[in-house]
């Protein structure tokens, strides 16, 4: 392993723990895998780390879909997908020109802004809006979160917090949140693979490391499935918001 990837046994151990956390985040606290993103970028070159992490995320997505597939809200998914596609294309172009520092700073700032907007909107939610205004607001929100989610997931596999904030702001309960998120990321992350291959982020060497790490996703997913039944809705929402803020700060301060 060291000869192929230039990583130490301690580095591989850190990646294995990050893979466990990916599984946990997919079945319990979505957005928590921003910590995994930071670990992968610390052990591996930042650009290459996104290509190694993507197949690991897809493994977690498959496990999450198997666990929560019946709870997805498909109208929400269809509303998001067009805007997400635009964000993925913008992210692909951005990756071709931006350095690692610009990528981290941009995503960190976006995550913190989205967290602040979500908290503000939830506090203002009790004020009734006219039906026409509410419909227009919902469309704008889906479009803006969708583009940001597509952009952040393409450039740094960091779309989880953005989708989490959107689903929280839309009032999703735990199972609906997890089921919708599971299908969303299985579809979006799978669609990102050709772009990542085209950018040289996924190749035979990265897939060998993925094969060694994929098994660690399973125990994380099982722990997450066990834990989510013991977390009430309010704590669940607080953990998602906290993970988003921490992820944003991590990216800004690195």
Automatic annotation (TrEMBL):
Its main location: membrane. Keywords: Cell membrane, Membrane, Transmembrane, Transmembrane helix, Transport. It is found in: Cell membrane. The chain crosses the membrane at residues 80-97, 142-169, 175-195, 207-228. The keyword Chloroplast does not apply. Belongs to the 4-toluene sulfonate uptake permease (TSUP) (TC 2.A.102) family. This is Probable membrane transporter protein. It comes from Streptomyces xanthii. The lineage of its organism: Bacteria, Bacillati, Actinomycetota, Actinomycetes, Kitasatosporales.
């Amino acid at each position: 392993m060291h000869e192929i990837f230039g990583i130490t046994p301690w580095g591989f151990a850190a990646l294995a723990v990050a893979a466990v956390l990916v599984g946990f985040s997919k079945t319990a606290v979505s957005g928590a895998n921003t910590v995994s993103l930071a670990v992968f970028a610390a052990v591996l070159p930042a650009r290459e780390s996104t290509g190694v992490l993507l197949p690991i995320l897809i493994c977690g997505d498959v496990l999450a879909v198997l666990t929560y597939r019946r709870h997805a809200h498909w109208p929400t998914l269809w509303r998001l997908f067009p805007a997400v596609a635009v964000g993925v294309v913008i992210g692909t172009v951005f990756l071709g020109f931006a350095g690692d520092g610009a990528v981290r700073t941009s995503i960190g700032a976006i995550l913190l802004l989205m967290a602040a907007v979500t908290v503000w909107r939830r506090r203002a939610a009790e004020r009734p809006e006219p039906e026409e205004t509410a419909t227009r607001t919902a469309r704008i929100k889906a479009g803006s979160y969708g583009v940001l989610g597509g952009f952040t997931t393409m450039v740094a596999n960091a779309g989880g917090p953005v989708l989490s904030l959107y689903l929280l702001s839309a009032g999703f309960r735990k199972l609906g949140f997890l089921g919708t998120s599971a299908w969303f990321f299985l579809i979006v992350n799978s669609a990102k693979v050709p772009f990542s291959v085209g950018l040289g982020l996924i190749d035979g060497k990265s897939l060998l490391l993925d094969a060694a790490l994929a098994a660690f996703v399973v125990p994380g997913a099982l722990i997450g499935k066990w834990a989510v039944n013991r977390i009430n809705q309010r704590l669940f929402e607080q953990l998602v918001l906290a993970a988003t803020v921490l992820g944003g700060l991590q990216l800004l301060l690195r």
